[in-house]
Design goal:
There is one protein chain. This protein has 180 residues and is an alpha+beta fold. The protein has six helices and four strands, in the order αββαααααββ. Helix content is 47%, strand content 11%. The longest helix is centred in the middle third of the chain and has 21 residues, at 68-88.
Length: 180
């Protein structure tokens, strides 16, 4: 984690784990492995704090703050998703390093402008799947992951993370815990 990475909602910085002894880190790894076998986190970690930061142009931007232990697990396991992603990436799909929404919009605008200058017709569709992941039926995600060879243990824990209880904070005021 970068030095400027903020703490989780538990007020623990991920970087403080660098101070742990090798034996404690080994115990933490065993805990992560047990969580992976179980397919869900302990009840004490069952909360995602959604902080709503005001936008300059009005409205709010939600930021999810997971417990620090879950953030560390996610960071440790992201290589599994990246290992799967590399051979399955296609040029028509944006996502990953250098292929975010801004790159997709810029490339699409350039293609559209070129088509217009050449007198050609052009159509495009952009879909932001980041928000779609939260609303997609989990059984559909499981079937798609199975068909595409995505690691199912990783998917199971990612889905479990999206089912954690949530509380919302705005300007120091908190909601009750809500089920996902």
């Amino acid at each position: 984690f970068h030095a400027a990475t903020g703490p989780g909602h538990d007020h623990i910085s991920p970087r403080c784990f660098l101070r742990l002894s090798d034996s404690v880190i080994a115990a933490l790894v065993k805990l992560f492995m047990a969580v992976e076998r179980r397919g869900s986190c302990a009840a004490v970690l069952d909360l995602v704090l959604i902080v709503l930061f005001p936008k300059r142009d009005g409205g709010f931007r939600p930021i999810r703050l997971f417990p620090t232990v879950i953030r560390i697990w996610m960071r440790e396991r992201v290589f599994i998703a990246k290992t799967w992603e590399a051979p399955t990436a296609t040029p028509a799909t944006f996502g990953g390093p250098g292929k975010g929404a801004q790159a997709a919009a810029f490339q699409t605008a350039m293609i559209a402008e070129t088509a217009n200058l050449d007198g050609d017709a052009f159509a495009a569709a952009l879909l932001d799947l980041v928000k779609a992941f939260e609303t997609a039926p989990h059984d559909v995600l499981v079937r798609a992951a199975h068909a595409k060879g995505y690691p199912l243990p990783l998917l199971r824990l990612c889905l479990a993370a999206y089912r954690l209880h949530r509380a919302i904070e705005v300007d120091g005021t908190y909601s009750r815990n809500c089920s996902a």
